[in-house]
Amino acid sequence: MPKKKPSKSEKSVPSSPPVSAAPTERSGMVLRVKSSEKMKRLALMSRESEEEWRPKSGRSVKTAARGKKNVKLDAKMPKKPPTAFFYFLEDFRKDYQEQNPDVKSMRDIGKACGEKWKTMTYEEKVQYYDIATEKRREFDKAMAEYVKRKESGEDEETEDDSNFE
DNA sequence: TGCGTGATTGTTAGT
DNA sequence: ACTAACAATCACGCA
After folding, report:
1. Which of A28, A29, A124, A152 might form a disulfide with A120, Cβ 3.0–4.6 angstroms?
2. Which residue, among A145, A16, A150, A143, has the nearest Cα to A79 in the 3D structure?
């Protein structure tokens, strides 16, 4: 029931932290060409839904088979990076387990984490947002390289890990 | 023995 | 603009 509809009244958490409060100083000037990035991302977007889409390493969502869309299961396909909340969850989980060793299920932890997450201030969350943003950037790059490799020759399996360099 | 589930929010991609 | 679905984690349950 909590399903709160996205009301415009609230700004919701800004996907991209405002530059004013954005702790970019940590990395210096991370801001570069957002337009270009967006463009590239859009270009990749088509590729993804067309050929890659998502392998679902394991049972990420619900059995990862909700619709069994004949995914190629590309082992090299970059998965979606965890969001800021997930990073916070990792940290929160450790603390939560210490305080609540009885609770082992992540379900309960998720609830507690979500509750605390809402109580956290933007400044506290922004640091996680920063991490998530940086991670996403890396993911974007990985995706670009992944697509590039595909276009190059589609190695697919052949090289498991080892060193193809 | 092994996979599916459930819960959290955020982020992305597609319609 | 909105919707939908997926991202990790981990104990438990069912076949």
Report:
1. A124
2. A143
Q: In the predicted model, what is the mean pLDDT of chain A?
A: 63
Nucleotides in B strand less than 7 A from protein CB: 3-15
**Does the structure show a pLDDT above 80 at A67?**
no
What's the sign of the alpha-carbon dihedral A61, A67, A68, A74? Answer: negative
Q: How far is the CA of A76 from the C1' of B13 (A)?
A: 19
Mean local confidence (pLDDT), A126-147: 86
Tell me the C-alpha distance between A122 and A142, whole Å: 29
C-alpha R_g of chain A: 19
Contact A78, A143 (CB under 8 A): yes
Domain residue extents for chain A: 34-151
Q: Are A93 and A106 in contact (CB under 8 A)?
A: yes
Q: Is the CB of A6 under 7 A from strand C?
A: yes
Encode burial over A27-45: b for 16+ CB neighbours within 10 A, e otherwise. Answer: eeeeeeeeeeeeebeeebe
Could you tell me which CATH class the domain A34-151 is placed in? mainly alpha
Q: In terms of C-beta density within 10 A (0-12 exposed, 13-18 middle, 19 or more buried), how is residue A105 classed?
A: exposed
Nucleotide nearest residue A111, measured CA to C1': B8
